[in-house]
Design goal:
The complex is a heterodimer. By secondary structure, chain A is mainly α. Chain A has a two-stranded antiparallel ribbon. Chain A contains 26 helices and 4 strands. The radius of gyration of chain A is 23 Å and the shape is globular. Among the domains of chain A are: about 180 residues, no CATH class; about 50 residues, no CATH class. Chain B is of the alpha/beta class. Chain B has one domain: Alkaline Phosphatase, subunit A, CATH 3.40.720. Chain B contains 11 helices and 14 strands. In chain B, β8 and β9 form a beta hairpin. The two termini of chain B are about 25 Å apart. The chains are: A mainly alpha, B alpha/beta.
C-alpha cells in the first residue's frame, strides 16, 4: 500500500477517532502503519492523559441547589453561582479536549454525552455534570452494560430524567422510557406495558444531592411481580437493564450508533453491523467494537470520507488544536485574547453539557442551514485572528493553501475550494478563515 | 393535481424581490398569512393550559397539580386558561384567539421523538420523510426565503424533498470580511461536479445564505434590528471576539425578529420559532407556569408590536406540541407523556373567542389512561394550507382532510 494511502487513512482515522492531526505528526505515524495508529489511539482509552489531566478542574460552588423553602433572593444568588459553575465546567472540558494526549477518549466521552444526553439546564449542579462526564471518561470504553448500570445511578441522569422522584404510588415513566428508546434498544422493540413495568422497577431509586451518592428507599420500591419484555419476576432497575442489554436488538442499536458517529450514518439493519457483533460480544465490549469499526474495510472508504459533518464541538476543538488558539477559562478572558471555546461551539448550535433534549444532537443535515453557515463564517474569521499563522506565513503564497490543509489534517482541497483559496493566498488570515468555512473542512 | 400545479405555478411566478412594494403578507390573492408557527418542545400539558375546571374528574385526577376554578382565567363552556396566560385571555375576549381542542392522530405515539416527527412530517405511520411545510416550500418552489425559522438549527418540519427553508438568528444577515474575501466565499459555494453528498449540501447552505442576505438587503424598509449585536429591537446575532453570540435565545426575541421581517415586507409566508422544556415529569406547576408565562408575554408583545404595520392584520399564529400529558398526575408532582391537547390559533382575522372540536372526556380514557382525540392534526394543517397559504392541501398531506372554520 502506498505511503500516500496510508497517510490519508491515518489522517481520516485521526479526524474521526480524534480531533485531526497536523501533517508533521502524521508523517511520524506513517512508517508503523494504519493498524498501529489504531492501537495507539485505543491504548489511550485506558492509559493516563497527562496533558488533559493538567487542565485544572474548576472549583465547584459550595452552594446547594435551592430548595422549595428558599427565598427569591436566595434563589437568584444560588442560581447565578450555579450557572457560572456550569460555564467554568464547559470551558474546562473544551480546554481538556484541545490539550488531551488521548483524543479518542475525549471523543468517546463526547459520544456518550450525546448518547446519554443530560442537560445542565435542568440538573443545574455543575459538580453532578462533572461526575457524569468523568463516568463517561473512566468507564466509557469498557462494558456497555456496566456503563448503563452506572449511568442509571448517576446523579445528573437521575435528576435529568426524574428517576430520583420515582415512587411506588405513581411510577415516573421518564427514565424508564428513554432507557429503552434512546439508550439501549430503540423504538419498536417494546410496548407501553414494558414502559410501565420498567418504571415500577426503578421505584425507590433516589440520590442524595448532599452526599453525592445513589440511595435506595425500600419503602418506595414496588416489590410486586412485573412482566417486562416477556419475562416475569420481581425486577429492580438493575434487572431491567440486564434484560435490555442482553437482547440482540440492543447490540445492533449500540453498534449502529457507534458506527454512525465514527464512520457514516447507518440503520440497525445495515450489514456492516453484522460484522461488528462478534467484537461487541457477550461482554458488551466498547473498545473491541471501536477496534472493529476502525479496522473494517468500509471505514477506510470514500463513503466514510464524505459521511459526516463535524459537530460544532469537534469543529471548534479541531480548529483550536490545529491553529494553536489559546483558550481561556472563562468568557471574560476573551478580552485578553483567550478564546471562549464553549461559547464558540454554542454559537454554532452545540452547547457542551446542554444538549437540546434527551435525544442529544442530530447529525449531518442537522448542522446545515443558513444560520449555521452565517455563524460558521463569522467564527472562522474570529479564529483566524487568534490563530498562530507562522506555518502559513513562512511559505510562498502558491504553497499556502496546501500548508493550511496540512495543518488541518486534510489530504488537500477539492478543485472548487482550491480556486477560491488561491485568491486569498496572499493574505494568510483571510486564507485560513476561508479554509475553515470551506465545505471540504466542514465535512471532512 | 391540476389545481396544485396551477397554484404552485402561480406562486412560483411571483418573485419575492419583484413585489417588494406589496408584502407577501397581503399578497395578491390571499387575505391571510404569513403563518407563524410556535413549536412547543417536550409535550405541553393541555389540561393545565386550557383547564376544564368545571369537570369534577379534573381535580380528582390532579389533586396536587390541578387549578381551582378561582385561580384560572375563564373562557367559556366551563373551560379556563392557565393563570399565566392573561394576554391570551384578552386576545380571546377580542375574538382573536381560537382554540382547537383534543388534537392528536390515530394510534398516538408516546415517544417525544417519534411523535414530534409525526407532527412535523404529517406522516402518521412512522414519522419518516420530509417536513410538511418543507413540501409546501417544494410546491412554491422559489427559494428558501419563502419560509424562515428563527434559531440556530432548522427543524425537520421545514426541510422538503427539494427545498430547505432559511434559518436566521437575526433580522438581517451581515457577513464580515472585505469584498474580496466575500467574493472568494461566494465562489467557494459554487455547485460543481466535484462536489457530491454532504460537501454539496454544505455549499448549498452557503448559497442559500448569500441569497437570503440579498433578499433581506433588498427589502424596501430595512428590518428594525438593522445589523450588528443588539442594535435593534430584535437584536441581530453575531459572533463577538469573545465568541459569544448575541441573538434571540428566547421566544420573545425570536418573535421580535419575525415581527421586524413582516414589518419590513419580507416575502416569507411561513415563520417558525420554538420554546422548549415542556417535558414536565416532575415539579410541573412552577416550571409549566414559567413557560406559559414566556409564551403569553411573547405572543402578546408580538401582536402589539405588529399593530398598524402593513400586513399585520393577516398574520395567523399557531402553536403545537408533540403531545399533551397524562390526565392523572404522577407522584413526582408532574405528568407523563399523553396524547390529545388543545392548540392555539391567534390573529386579528381568526374566528376567535370560540372553540373548535369537542373537549376530550376525562372519564373515557384509552388503555394507558390518556385522552381520546377528536380532531386529527392534519385537519388543522389542511385548514392552514387551504385558507392561509392558499395551497392544495392534498398535494402536501397525501389525502383530503376536512378543514375547520377557525379562519
Amino acid at each position: 500500500m502506498s505511503v500516500d494511502i496510508v497517510r490519508s487513512d491515518i489522517a481520516l482515522l485521526y479526524r474521526r477517532a480524534g480531533f485531526g492531526l497536523k501533517g508533521a505528526e502524521l508523517d511520524t505515524l506513517v512508517p508503523a502503519g494504519y493498524e498501529a495508529a489504531v492501537e495507539s489511539l485505543l491504548a489511550g482509552l485506558t492509559g493516563p492523559d497527562p496533558a488533559g489531566d493538567a487542565e485544572v478542574v474548576p472549583a465547584f460552588p459550595a452552594i446547594q441547589v435551592p430548595g422549595a423553602t428558599a427565598s427569591a433572593s436566595e434563589r437568584r444568588a444560588a442560581n447565578a453561582e450555579l450557572r457560572s459553575g456550569v460555564t467554568a465546567l464547559q470551558e474546562w472540558w473544551m480546554r481538556r479536549m484541545v490539550a488531551t494526549s488521548t483524543p479518542l477518549r475525549e471523543k468517546l466521552t463526547l459520544f456518550w454525552h450525546g448518547h446519554f444526553a443530560t442537560g445542565a439546564s435542568k440538573v443545574r449542579d455543575p459538580e453532578l455534570m462533572y461526575l457524569q462526564n468523568q463516568l463517561f471518561r473512566t468507564q466509557g470504553a469498557g462494558s456497555f452494560e456496566a456503563l448503563t448500570q452506572a449511568v442509571a445511578k448517576d446523579g445528573a441522569m437521575m435528576f435529568w430524567l426524574d428517576t430520583e422522584t420515582d415512587k411506588k404510588a405513581h411510577p415516573n415513566e421518564n427514565f424508564a422510557r428513554e432507557l429503552m428508546e434512546l439508550f439501549t434498544i430503540g423504538i419498536g422493540h417494546y410496548t407501553q406495558d414494558d414502559v410501565v413495568s420498567s418504571a415500577r422497577s426503578f421505584t425507590g431509586w433516589s440520590y442524595s444531592r448532599r452526599a453525592y451518592r445513589y440511595i435506595f428507599e425500600p419503602s418506595q420500591h414496588d416489590y410486586g411481580a412485573k412482566t417486562f419484555l416477556g419475562q416475569t419476576g420481581d425486577f429492580d432497575g438493575t434487572g431491567v437493564i440486564s434484560i435490555l442489554v442482553n437482547k440482540p436488538d440492543s447490540a445492533r442499536f449500540v453498534l449502529a450508533k457507534l458506527w454512525s458517529h465514527f464512520a457514516y450514518p447507518v440503520t440497525t439493519d445495515d450489514p456492516v453491523i453484522d460484522d461488528l457483533m462478534g467484537a461487541y460480544g457477550s461482554g458488551f465490549d466498547v473498545t473491541g467494537s471501536l477496534r472493529a469499526i476502525f479496522l473494517h474495510p468500509n471505514f477506510r472508504s470514500a463513503k466514510t470520507r464524505s459521511g459526516l459533518v463535524k459537530q460544532p464541538i469537534e469543529y471548534v476543538t479541531g480548529v483550536a488544536r490545529a491553529l494553536g488558539v489559546k483558550a481561556g477559562s472563562s468568557p471574560s478572558e476573551s478580552g485578553s485574547g483567550l478564546a471562549s471555546l464553549a461559547r464558540l461551539a454554542t454559537a454554532l448550535g452545540q452547547e457542551p453539557f446542554n444538549p437540546p433534549n434527551v435525544g442529544g444532537w442530530g447529525q449531518n443535515s442537522y448542522w446545515l442551514d443558513t444560520a449555521t453557515a452565517e455563524v460558521r463564517l463569522e467564527l472562522a474569521l474570529v479564529f483566524a485572528r487568534w490563530a498562530d499563522l507562522s506555518a502559513i506565513e513562512s511559505v510562498p503564497p502558491s504553497q499556502r493553501p496546501a500548508a493550511v490543509a496540512d495543518l488541518l489534517g486534510l489530504d488537500g482541497w477539492g478543485p472548487t475550494t482550491a480556486s477560491a483559496l488561491e485568491t486569498q493566498a496572499h493574505r494568510p488570515r483571510q486564507l485560513v478563515a476561508l479554509a475553515l468555512a470551506s465545505p471540504d473542512y466542514v465535512v471532512a | 393535481m391540476g389545481a396544485a400545479a396551477a397554484t404552485a405555478g402561480a406562486l412560483a411566478a411571483i418573485r419575492p424581490w419583484e413585489q417588494r412594494a406589496k408584502p407577501a403578507s397581503v399578497s395578491s390573492s390571499g387575505t391571510f398569512g404569513p403563518l407563524v408557527l410556535i413549536t412547543l418542545y417536550g409535550g405541553n400539558d393541555g389540561l393545565n393550559t386550557v383547564i376544564p375546571y368545571n369537570d369534577p374528574a379534573y381535580l380528582s385526577l390532579r389533586p396536587n397539580l390541578g387549578y381551582q376554578a378561582s385561580e384560572a382565567l375563564p373562557l367559556a363552556e366551563g373551560l379556563a386558561l392557565n393563570p399565566k396566560l392573561p394576554g391570551l385571555q384578552s386576545l380571546w375576549k377580542r375574538g382573536h384567539l381560537a382554540i382547537v381542542r383534543g388534537v392528536s392522530y390515530p394510534n398516538p405515539n408516546l415517544s417525544h421523538f417519534a411523535s414530534m416527527a409525526i407532527w412535523q412530517t404529517a406522516n402518521v405511520i412512522d414519522g419518516t420523510g420530509s417536513g410538511w411545510l418543507g413540501r409546501w416550500l417544494d410546491e412554491v418552489g422559489d427559494g428558501p426565503e419563502r419560509a424562515i425559522s428563527v434559531g440556530a438549527t432548522l427543524p425537520p418540519i421545514l426541510r422538503g424533498d427539494k427545498e430547505t427553508a432559511a434559518a436566521i438568528i437575526g433580522p438581517t444577515v451581515t457577513l464580515s470580511g472585505d469584498s474580496a474575501f466575500q467574493e472568494a466565499y461566494a465562489a467557494m459555494q459554487t455547485a460543481s461536479p466535484d462536489r457530491v453528498g454532504l460537501v454539496a449540501d454544505v455549499a448549498s447552505s452557503g448559497r442559500d445564505l448569500l441569497a437570503l442576505r440579498q433578499r433581506l438587503t433588498d427589502l424596501q424598509a430595512p428590518p428594525k434590528g438593522g445589523g450588528r449585536a443588539g442594535a435593534g429591537t430584535a437584536g441581530a446575532a453575531t459572533v463577538s471576539d469573545g465568541g459569544g453570540v448575541v441573538g434571540p435565545n428566547d421566544v420573545r426575541s425570536a418573535l421580535a425578529v419575525v415581527s421586524d421581517l413582516i414589518t419590513a415586507g419580507a416575502a416569507a409566508q411561513v415563520y417558525q420559532v420554538s420554546l422548549a422544556s415542556f417535558d414536565t415529569h416532575a415539579d410541573e406547576k412552577a416550571n409549566h407556569e414559567r413557560l406559559l408565562g414566556e409564551l403569553d408575554t411573547a405572543v402578546t408583545a408580538f401582536f402589539k408590536g405588529l399593530a398598524g404595520s402593513p400586513g399585520a392584520d393577516s398574520v395567523v399564529l399557531m402553536t403545537y406540541s408533540e403531545f399533551g400529558r397524562r390526565p392523572g398526575e404522577n407522584a413526582s408532582g408532574g405528568t407523563d407523556h399523553g396524547t390529545a391537547a388543545p392548540l392555539f390559533v391567534v390573529g386579528p382575522q381568526v374566528r376567535g373567542g370560540r372553540f373548535y372540536g369537542e373537549e376530550p372526556s376525562l372519564t373515557r380514557l384509552d388503555t394507558n389512561g390518556n385522552l381520546l382525540s377528536n380532531i386529527d392534526f392534519r385537519q388543522v394543517y389542511a385548514t392552514v394550507l387551504e385558507k392561509v397559504l392558499r395551497t392544495d392541501s392534498r398535494a402536501i398531506l397525501g389525502s383530503r382532510f376536512q378543514t375547520l372554520d377557525f379562519v
